[in-house]
Amino acid sequence: MNENLNDFIDAFLLDGGEQSEKALIAALKKAEFLAPVLINQALAKPDGSAVYEEEGSNIKFVLLEDEESGLSYFPAFSSRTEMMRWRNDAEQEAINLRLKDYAAILEGGEGKYAGVVIDAFSHDLILDLAKIKAICAE
Questions:
Q1: Beta strand ranges found along the chain (DSSP E)
Q2: Local confidence band at 3 (pLDDT 50, 70, 90 cut-offs)
Q3: How far apart, in whole angstroms, are the C-alpha atoms of residue 28 and residue 33?
Q4: Distance CA 129, CA 102 (A)
Q5: β-bridge mates for residue 94, sequence order
Q6: Are strands 33-39 and 59-61 parallel, antiparallel or unpaired?
Q7: What is the pLDDT of residues 81-115, one digit of tens each?
Q8: Cα dihedral angle (80, 85, 88, 92), rounded to 10 degrees?
Q9: Residue 30, pLDDT score
Q10: d(Cα 82, Cα 138) in Å, to the nearest integer?
């Protein structure tokens, strides 16, 4: 799914040099991340017919909160293995998102969310909206 992304993150976190930053940005632009979601089952009327909800209301994104700052982040996992470090549940639903998708969600959130955290339980790479926009624009 994201070949070598973890290697690029490791290299950047290790040395923080310009070369490793450029390689990481190139990898992030191509990457697809697993975004954990909660999917509400469709409601049914007593006669068995479906209740139609507002479009998109049956999917809720999971947020991670920084206990010290109280800020909320969207978790983005580079692989199912990374997601299992957060929640060891093979049934955990997830959708694939790219950084540009997260940028749209963050913009629509009007400041409610601090950003995205990539592989929160290993690399813990945090990107705010400004960084995501800069990466997508390069």
A1: 33-39, 59-61, 64-65, 72-76, 94-97, 115-118, 125-127
A2: confident
A3: 9
A4: 8
A5: 36
A6: antiparallel
A7: 999 999 888 888 899 999 999 999 999 887 889 99
A8: -40
A9: 92
A10: 27
